[in-house]
Amino acid sequence: MTLKSRLKRQEIVVAPGVFDGLTASLAEAAGFEALYLSGAAVAYTRLGRPDIGLTTASEMADTMTLIADRTSLPVIIDADTGFGNALNAQRTMRLYERAGASALQVEDQTYPKRCGHLADKSLISASEMTGKIAAMADARASQDTLIIARTDAIAVEGFAAATDRAEAYLDAGADVLFIEAPQSRTQLEGIAKQFSARVPLLANMVEGGATPITGADDLETQGFSIVIFPGGIVRALARTARDYYDSLSKYGSNAPFSDRMFDFDGLNEVIGTGEMLERGARYDGSDR
Fold first, then answer.
1. Which residues of the chain have pLDDT under 50?
2. What letter does residue 212 receive in the DSSP assignment?
3. Do residues 181 and 209 make contact, with C-beta atoms less than 8 angstroms apart?
4. What's the pTM?
5. Distance, CA of 13 to CA of 7 (rounded, Å)
6. Is 137 in contact with 146 (CB distance < 8 Å)?
7. 189-210 residue pLDDT tens
8. β-strand 176-179 against 13-18: which pairing, if any?
């Protein structure tokens, strides 16, 4: 099932953040229907740095390719600003689509961008952003590849300006709208009231961010079609990894931490080692 066809159903799509083949496979095993490849999560894990526009399009495309090789679930990929002007955004569309993305999220910040829940963001003009959206629509190879238009205007120009920009982006050809960092439930409900009858809406849940954490069922009732949890997995893993390294440094052994980690066989089961070896044996000419 494509993400486009899945969005025709009333039930909300919950897309957890992933950043590599392992997290994608674990999310799929947990029963999710779609994934979100977060630029922030790639910056956090590959670079050990914040989400301030340091990742490149090629790094994201390489990551997308590896995830697509591991799972057949539809993946929403963070395309940041398209990495430049409208022509750059077209190239990003072609690159990410070939890598296996089902939807590209593009935003109206200046480049380099920063996390939508950080302060001191700046925006391009609405007309420049509508040009990027139209350019990406012209460049995509399949109409099943969705364009998710994000505006960061709430924190910069105010709520009314954000909804005005969203209207313009919808007119330009956006398939999904993403109004980033609503600051209250009232703003969430206002977004849904204005747009949900006309276009799928995406909500972003960032632990400790500007938007009040709201459950998927509640967002569905309001009228949202997709909810992403982009960086939650990194926050969970980073805390666990810190505790693991502290324990190993203190005790010189993993024994005290063993109840919080897979052993060798346990991890091999999770990543399908036995299945892979059996599959390989079918092609190596042996009688095993």
1. none
2. P
3. yes
4. 0.94
5. 8
6. no
7. 999 999 999 999 999 999 988 9
8. unpaired
